[in-house]
């Protein structure tokens, strides 16, 4: 059974898995215009992805400033995606706190495999035990990088 909503507070910042708090417009704005992995993603796709994921919102006095989502069966595997902190809030330890919160979430304990794709945040993820795929010859993909155009 999945754990109910998780909310953590640190000074004026908070992290919550309450989807009712998520600012879909803000998330869409960031993902569609600033995130190299999802440029031009339609708002409906963002909303649907949130509906089908475990989401973590990062807030400054209630204003959303960061986000991450997990796609998982909560038993064997989890995919971490759409992780960001607004540029003005970087360097405050929020991405580390977000990752600590995700990696210790009760529903994500004991998974056999975690996966993610990143073009620029390898050092952040390494701090939490992530490494490059040891045998990439076993992995396959279909990647339609222009699907939102």
TrEMBL record:
Coiled-coil ranges from the UniProt annotation: none
InterPro entries: Acetyltransferase_Butenolide (IPR053144), Acyl_CoA_acyltransferase (IPR016181), GNAT_dom (IPR000182)
Pfam families the record matches: Acetyltransf_1
Source species, domain of life: Bacteria
A single MF term (Gene Ontology): acyltransferase activity, transferring groups other than amino-acyl groups
Sequence ranges assigned to domain N-acetyltransferase in this UniProt record: 1-149
Keyword Membrane assigned: no
Keywords, alphabetical: Transferase
CDD domains from the UniProt entry: NAT_SF
PANTHER family reported in the protein's UniProt record: FAMILY N-ACETYLTRANSFERASE, PUTATIVE (AFU_ORTHOLOGUE AFUA_6G03350)-RELATED
Protein's recorded name: GNAT family N-acetyltransferase
Source organism of this protein record: Flavobacterium profundi
């Amino acid at each position: 059974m999945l754990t109910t909503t998780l909310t953590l507070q640190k000074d004026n910042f908070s992290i919550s898995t309450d989807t009712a708090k998520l600012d879909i417009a803000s998330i869409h704005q960031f993902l569609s215009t600033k995130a190299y992995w999802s440029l031009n993603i339609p708002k409906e796709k963002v909303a649907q992805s949130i509906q089908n994921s475990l989401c973590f919102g990062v807030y400054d006095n209630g204003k959303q400033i960061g986000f991450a989502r997990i796609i998982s069966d909560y038993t064997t595997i989890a995919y971490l995606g759409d992780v960001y902190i607004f540029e003005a809030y970087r360097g405050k330890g929020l991405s580390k706190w977000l990752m600590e919160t995700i990696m210790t979430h009760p529903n994500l304990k004991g998974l056999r495999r975690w996966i993610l794709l990143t073009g620029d945040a390898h050092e952040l993820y390494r701090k939490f035990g992530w490494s490059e795929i040891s045998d990439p010859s076993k992995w396959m993909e279909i990647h339609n990088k222009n699907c939102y155009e």
